[in-house]
């Protein structure tokens, strides 16, 4: 395992992703809460940071159990820290050291720099530079402007590089990271989805024994993969609950339930549509609607869970980006922890322990594990869908009739994307039912019906997004189909806003 000590850089997660792509297991820990250094840790990477090493408040990690004892790679801030605190000097940079640069010197006899091109491009992102290195440090690469771009320490397996190898724009970054984890640290590159399934199932078997586990399925990728893994470990001691909140896509409840049963899962489908509609009646405030949907979900889930006698565990599909403790901007102990509960948080009195078999995986790894488990690609490739479902795509109050109208329009759009081969190019798509009525004409009749907005975006994580430039012919066909087939809609618009400043959902 490679330990990544996080000093708060925006790129820390990317380092972990790159190592995982090299089939190497790694974990990110905040610099001020490092784990115990055991023989399991084959090497350590120090990340970048928003801090300057010269700053009074800059992180000052205690590396006494690491430096000189284990392979160590400092990246950006990490490299500057290893220089500044061991006899070198870091100063504010006089020239711009942001963005692309090209190496002008590479010592390929250094293990870290093997196969790194003599003039290859690197990505710089720092305001400081290493003005001088301690005596026993040797330069292993430079750019025109940055003489000490990379170094090694004589007699140690310690290296530092001022650029970011984890960023795509560092063209040989992957070679460099591979050199470190394979040739310097001796990692076996045996972290694969199959190996993950094997070890996780064995761990779950041991941890859970004959205990019963309850898991809320949502139809999404994460909860489905978590369920199949748990099922492989404990069979029918896993009790899955899939709640129809009346805000799912057209026919989704039936179809998803069918495919879960096809996978051998022990699933109880609960039709709670009317409970949700009743609780939502007359409410048009987006946040209140979210809260009501969350609360009713917990009530329904709780009622169903009680029917499973002696359940001890709650299974969740939490994934790595949701649990990584990232160092807050102040670097202090007030580290922010994002935590995410797929089931919306359960009442304390349920007293269930939580089991989260995917909590160390990134989204793409969850999909790879799902594939290795033989899960239907249609489930693995599904677009994200918000927990409150169509409830936040019906602007204003929710009624069963509005849900029906939106489900019809949404189904035409989504199936249209699939038929046109565009579904996988889109990160997320859906239709918004607007609280706007407009005049239209159908045949000889004047109509006065609702407008909808189609929304399709490209994104990698939902944090930022661009509207999809879907072909006009495709949009024309979808618009035509919706207006002709869905009674209650006479106008279709296409949302061409990016996030930020807009959001993906309209509520
Ligand atoms: P926004 O609208 O904030 O959405 O750009 C970003 C991503 O989050 C999803 N989303 C939600 N997911 N509960 C969820 O589980 C919610 O209340 C919620 N609101 C937005 C949205 O679908 C998109 O993928």
From TrEMBL:
Catalytic site: 76 (nucleophile), 164, 166
Pfam families, per database record: GATase (PF00117), GMP_synt_C (PF00958), NAD_synthase (PF02540)
Substrates-to-products reaction catalysed: XMP + L-glutamine + ATP + H2O = GMP + L-glutamate + AMP + diphosphate + 2 H(+)
EC number of the protein: 6.3.5.2
Positions that bind ATP: 218-224
Keyword ATP-binding set for record: yes
Pathway(s): Purine metabolism; GMP biosynthesis; GMP from XMP (L-Gln route): step 1/1
Keywords (A to Z) from UniProt: ATP-binding, Glutamine amidotransferase, GMP biosynthesis, Ligase, Nucleotide-binding, Purine biosynthesis
GO MF, one example: ATP binding
Ranges of residues in domain GMPS ATP-PPase: 191-382
GO CC annotations, alphabetized: cytosol
Classification via NCBIfam families: guaA_Cterm (TIGR00884), guaA_Nterm (TIGR00888), PRK00074.1 (NF000848)
Quaternary structure note: Homodimer.
Annotated function: Catalyzes the synthesis of GMP from XMP.
The name this protein goes by in its record: GMP synthase [glutamine-hydrolyzing]
Organism: Parvicella tangerina
Gene: guaA_2
């Amino acid at each position: 395992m490679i330990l990544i000590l996080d000093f708060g850089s925006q790129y820390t997660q990317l380092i972990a992703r790159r190592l995982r792509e090299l089939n190497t297991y790694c974990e990110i820990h905040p610099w001020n809460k490092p784990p115990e250094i055991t023989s399991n840790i084959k090497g350590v990477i120090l990340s970048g940071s928003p801090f300057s090493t010269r700053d009074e408040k800059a992180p000052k990690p205690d590396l006494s159990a690491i430096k000189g004892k284990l392979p160590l790679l400092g990246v950006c801030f990490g490299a500057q820290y290893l220089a500044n605190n061991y006899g070198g000097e870091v100063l504010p940079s006089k020239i711009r050291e942001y963005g692309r640069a090209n190496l002008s010197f590479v010592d390929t006899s250094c293990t870290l720099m093997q196969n790194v091109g003599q003039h290859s491009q690197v990505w710089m992102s720092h305001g400081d530079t290493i003005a001088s290195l301690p005596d026993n440090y040797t330069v292993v690469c430079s750019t025109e402007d940055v003489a000490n771009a990379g170094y090694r320490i004589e007699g140690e397996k310690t290296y530092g590089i001022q650029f970011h190898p984890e960023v795509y724009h560092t063209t040989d970054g992957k070679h460099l990271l591979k050199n470190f984890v394979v040739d310097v640290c001796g990692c076996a590159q045996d972290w694969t989805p199959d190996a993950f399934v094997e070890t996780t199932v064995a761990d779950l078997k041991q941890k859970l024994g004959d205990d019963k586990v309850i898991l809320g399925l949502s139809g999404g990728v994460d909860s489905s993969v978590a369920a199949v893994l748990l099922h492989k470990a404990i069979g029918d001691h896993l009790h899955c609950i899939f709640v129809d909140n009346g805000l799912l896509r057209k026919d989704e409840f039936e179809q998803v339930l069918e495919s879960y049963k096809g996978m051998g899962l022990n699933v109880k489908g609960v039709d709670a549509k009317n409970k949700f509609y009743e609780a939502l009646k007359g409410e048009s405030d987006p946040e209140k609607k979210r809260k009501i949907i969350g609360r009713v979900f917990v009530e329904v889930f709780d009622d169903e869970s009680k029917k499973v006698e002696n359940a001890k565990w709650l299974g969740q599909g939490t994934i790595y980006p949701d649990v990584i403790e990232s160092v807050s901007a102040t670097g202090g102990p007030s580290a922010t922890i994002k935590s995410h509960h797929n089931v919306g948080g359960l009442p304390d009195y349920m007293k269930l322990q939580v089991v989260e078999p995917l909590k160390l995986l990134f989204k793409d790894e969850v999909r790879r594990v799902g594939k290795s488990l033989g899960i239907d690609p249609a489930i693995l490739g599904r677009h994200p869908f918000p927990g409150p479902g169509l409830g936040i795509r019906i602007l204003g109050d929710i009624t069963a009739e509005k849900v029906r109208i939106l489900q019809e329009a949404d189904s035409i759009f989504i199936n249209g994307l699939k038929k046109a081969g565009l579904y996988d190019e889109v990160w997320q798509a859906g239709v918004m039912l607007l609280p706007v009525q407009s005049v239209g004409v159908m045949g000889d009749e004047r109509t006065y019906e609702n407008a909808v907005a189609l929304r399709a975006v490209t994104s990698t994580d939902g944090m930022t997004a661009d509207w999809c430039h879907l072909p006009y012919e495709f949009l024309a066909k979808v618009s035509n189909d919706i207006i002709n087939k869905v009674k209650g809609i006479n106008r279709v618009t296409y949302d061409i806003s990016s996030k930020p400043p807009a959001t993906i959902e309209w509520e």
